[in-house]
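Thread amino acids onto this structure.
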């Protein structure tokens, strides 16, 4: 089976207005490249076409999510707010969650892309799927949008998978540089979903993503935060994957694996301070693929989240899709030399954070107790 690839031209037409970095332009802020710009995603498509990989993928068209499916996580009042903004003047649906004219329908299609990806792997139409979803979703909470996210694509897709397919163990790994606060809240009391967020410590949103936030009630131990120090590169990320994420997967034994794939830990991202390269994203994908192959018949869904370097996101995403499809193109990372001069190793302060996570989570997971 081929690797499935989901996108729709509408994703690139979600209009977040003009701005500079993550703020609207005006006053002393001269208009520049707004971070949540369609160019990063459109350039992924362009690169896939240019190198010939697109022809070797299984193109899958997304369907719009239904209102009932959006209500698997979001409140009716919030959904109504997004639709009203979309139908009228546009505006902010919460905290830096810009809704443009027509964005409601595009957001439904973005969430529908995640749902379509779940259906594809569950039906055996593809072993794995990369969904180039936009707008992103992992910050969106039940009653408000946050950080460019309108509807929480991955959280809704996971709840959909449980409802339609009766799955009892879903693993979500969020490697976006920013904490997946919305997805965390969706499953904070839920022992059927193991949520792991590996992110830059104290970046965004404020006051979330702490290692001590382990879930509540029956969900205690099923929420895992790995808040890495700024400057962490491939070696630090892979150390966390091998020492925390893989052992947890082996004990949890997921029936479906979903990844919130934000490429903003990339070394050139304007909204992150990490040093992951395209090669690093490929290695992280390899581990997730091995987990899915070992435990759930290769059922792996990846949904695009952040990533704001127009130049670098396409090459990082290409490495991910090459790894998923096991098709190597002739494209080399043109920016690989930019990581030279800073040794890529696991530094002591990074080890300390990962060891702290292991110590905290070892209360709940026997595979981690063996390591302590």
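Threaded sequence (372 positions):
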């Amino acid at each position: 089976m081929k690797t499935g690839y989901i996108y729709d031209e509408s994703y690139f037409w979600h209009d977040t207005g003009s701005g500079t970095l993550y703020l609207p332009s005006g006053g002393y802020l001269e208009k520049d490249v707004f971070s949540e710009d369609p160019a990063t995603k459109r350039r992924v498509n362009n690169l896939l076409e240019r190198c010939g990989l697109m022809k070797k993928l299984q193109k899958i068209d997304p369907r719009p999510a239904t209102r009932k499916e959006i209500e698997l996580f979001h409140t009716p009042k919030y959904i109504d707010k997004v639709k009203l903004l979309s139908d009228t003047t546009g505006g902010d649906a919460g905290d830096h969650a810009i809704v443009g004219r027509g964005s409601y329908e595009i957001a439904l299609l973005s969430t529908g892309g995640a749902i379509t990806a779940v259906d594809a792997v569950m039906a055996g139409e593809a072993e794995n799927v990369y969904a180039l979803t936009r707008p992103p979703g992992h910050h969106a909470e039940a009653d408000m949008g946050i950080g460019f996210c309108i509807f929480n694509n991955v959280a809704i897709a996971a709840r959909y998978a449980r409802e339609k397919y009766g799955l009892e163990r879903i693993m979500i790994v969020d490697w976006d540089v920013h904490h997946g606060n919305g997805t965390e809240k969706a499953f904070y009391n839920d022992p059927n979903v193991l949520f792991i967020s590996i992110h830059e410590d104290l970046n965004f949103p404020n006051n979330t993503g702490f290692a001590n936030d382990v879930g509540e009630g029956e969900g205690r131990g099923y929420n895992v935060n790995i808040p890495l120090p700024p400057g962490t590169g491939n070696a630090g990320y892979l150390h966390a994957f091998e020492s925390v994420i893989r052992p947890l997967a082996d004990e949890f034994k997921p029936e479906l694996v979903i990844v919130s794939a934000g490429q903003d830990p990339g070394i050139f991202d304007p909204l992150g301070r990490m040093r992951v390269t395209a090669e690093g994203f490929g290695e992280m994908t390899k581990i997730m693929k091995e987990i899915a192959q070992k435990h759930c018949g290769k059922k792996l869904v990846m949904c695009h989240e952040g990533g704001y370097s127009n130049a670098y996101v396409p090459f990082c995403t290409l490495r991910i899709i090459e790894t998923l499809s096991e098709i190597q193109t002739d494209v080399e990372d043109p920016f690989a030399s930019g990581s030279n001069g800073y040794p890529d190793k696991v530094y002591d302060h990074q080890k300390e954070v990962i060891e702290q996570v292991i110590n905290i989570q070892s209360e709940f997971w026997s595979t981690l107790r063996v390591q302590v």
